[in-house]
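Posting this for the archive.
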Amino acid sequence: MVPELARRANLPEGTSLLLFEEIKPNMLEKIEDLEKPLEHVLEELMDGDIIVFQKEMCPTEAQVFRLPQCRDYFRDLFYKVIMSETHFVKCFSTFFSIFSFRLM
């Protein structure tokens, strides 16, 4: 399954991947059995299941990114709140967005 996913993501052959299944928003479960063919894994999945994968990185590589892991990204996405406000002054409108985060 991993070689097929790496090929579809245009990653070099032999790239190590970490695979996760999204159970519910902000909850990812790591998929351990990576040796199965893609067809067998797809048989076990149900309609609507989401598979997330990322390149496996060493700690020094991960330091470059603000959200180095899939779990970090989904946690950030889950807690992000976008507040928009519009002001109308003399037929002109200004629009701005504030990014805020719910408390974890």
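The two ends are 34 Å apart (CA to CA). Strands lie at 17-24, 27-30, 50-55, 80-89, 92-101.
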